[in-house]
Every structure is written in structure tokens, then in C-alpha cells.
Amino acid sequence: MLRFILHYGFHFIVPIAVGLFFYRKNTVLVVTILLSAIIIDMDHLWADPVFDPNRCSINFHPLHSYLAIGVYFVLFLLRKTRIIGLALLLHILADTIDCYLMS
Length: 103
Ligand SMILES: [Zn+2]
Prior knowledge:
Layout: H1 2-22, H2 27-36, H3 66-77, H4 82-102
Helix pairs in contact: 1-2, 1-4, 2-4, 3-4
Bound molecules: zinc ion.
Zinc ion binds at residues 40-41, 57, 64, 91, 95.
């Protein structure tokens, strides 16, 4: 239960906090982009079973693969797509923490 709260807390609270503290100009836009990174969890729909609380997402689902994470890093390094990259990396970080708590 604690893990569940931590995981979803991280998925929602961290993006809001980052938007508020680091992007004072376009806070609402940035927070919206950061929160929308949750859509990469769509790749869970291709997995069987769709939801398994004891499965680590990292490198299991296509959008959570090391290759995908590499792409997110590139997006983060490029100025124009930095926020999108940041959003995706924060999502991966949340999932990674979840995997550690699992073991
Ligand atoms: Zn995920």
C-alpha cells in the first residue's frame, strides 16, 4: 500500500513540484506536459496481464525499454524538446523507484 502511494504520488506530485519550482513562467503548460508523460504507460496494454503490481516496468514494456530511455535522454538534451524529455525521464524515475521498492 505504501508503495502504491509512493509510486502514484511520485507520478503526480513530482511533476507539479518541478513545474512550480523550476518553471515559474509557464507553470501550467509545463505541469500539463510533465503530467502527460503518464501516457507512456499505454504500453502496458500490450502486456499480458495488463496490470501486474509485482512486475517491474523498466525494460519490460517497449516505452520503458533502455532504448526508449536513451531516446528520452536525447529529447532532454535538446533545447526544444527538453521539457518532454524531462517529463519522460521523471516517469521512468518513478517506475525505477517502484522496482526497487518491489525487491
Ligand atoms: Zn510507467
